[in-house]
Specification:
single chain; globular; mainly alpha; 252 residues
């Protein structure tokens, strides 16, 4: 594949997914900074109800998941290899499930716990908005849906932002250090709507995940770690908001 075609392909894939999210995030933070209200007094809701009708809300949530994963399906098609492992170029196979799981749990703890501290510090310094992880109505399917949304985020961001970008940028002969930093900047950019704390925290997460992938070429631990971090945030948020509202700044 020619260099020009690779660049066009990368642009299209990112334009359908994380790259467009980064542009929306840039506009979002510009709007927030233009307001007189400090960032810490503003809120960003990650998972919100889409309808007052239960069946419609459920349908919209599922459609949102399916829509978000279409770029992942495109990447799988582009990098599929006819011999096993079919997704080896994405760093995905089932040869080391135990090791992948252990590393995923370790990464989740290493990123999630300091990340929570950075979030509260950023809010206290008025550098970050207040994150409302979920305002889904309390239906029977709300918790399973939040777990599915966490999985969606883990698959989308790691498959495209790490596996795909590493594969294609290496074909373009981009230095490994440049790929890691570029990936970290992209990850930070589409979280910029959260404020400076969200940007810095996700940039650091990007460096850690990028370095890990460069060393291991295993994508499953990253997907698992990301999914676990988001699952704890999405499902744990309603419990914390109900029992300890002062921690979240009495938002909801």
């Amino acid at each position: 594949m020619s260099r020009r075609r690779l660049i066009v392909e990368i642009t299209i894939v990112l334009g359908l997914s994380l790259g467009m999210s980064a542009l929306y995030s840039l506009v979002g933070i510009a709007i927030r900074l233009s307001r007189e209200t400090p960032l810490s007094a503003q809120t960003a809701t990650l998972n919100r109800s889409a309808s007052d009708l239960e069946w419609a809300d459920f349908s919209y949530q599922l459609l949102g998941v399916a829509s978000a994963l279409m770029p992942v399906a495109l990447v799988v098609l582009l990098l599929w290899h006819h011999t096993r492992p079919h997704l080896g170029r994405l760093g995905l196979d089932l040869t080391k499930p135990g090791r992948d799981s252990a590393q995923g749990l370790g990464l989740a703890a290493a990123i999630g716990i300091p990340g929570l501290g950075l979030y509260f510090l950023s809010r206290s310094l008025e550098l970050n908005v207040t994150i409302v992880a979920s305002d889904l109505s309390p239906y029977w399917w709300s918790v399973p849906m939040l777990l599915l949304l966490a999985l969606r985020a883990g698959v989308l961001e790691e498959v495209i932002g790490v596996g795909y970008l590493f594969a294609r940028l290496e074909q373009l002969r981009v230095p490994l250090v440049g790929i890691i930093i570029g990936h970290a900047f992209l990850r930070a950019s589409y979280h910029l709507y959260q404020g400076l704390g969200g940007f810095v925290g996700n940039f650091i997460m990007g460096l850690v995940f990028g370095y890990f992938y460069a060393k291991t070429r295993r994508l499953a631990p990253l997907i698992l770690a990301h999914t676990l971090i988001d699952a704890v945030a999405f499902v744990g948020y309603p419990l914390v908001a109900e029992n300890f509202p002062e921690i979240l700044g009495n938002v909801g």
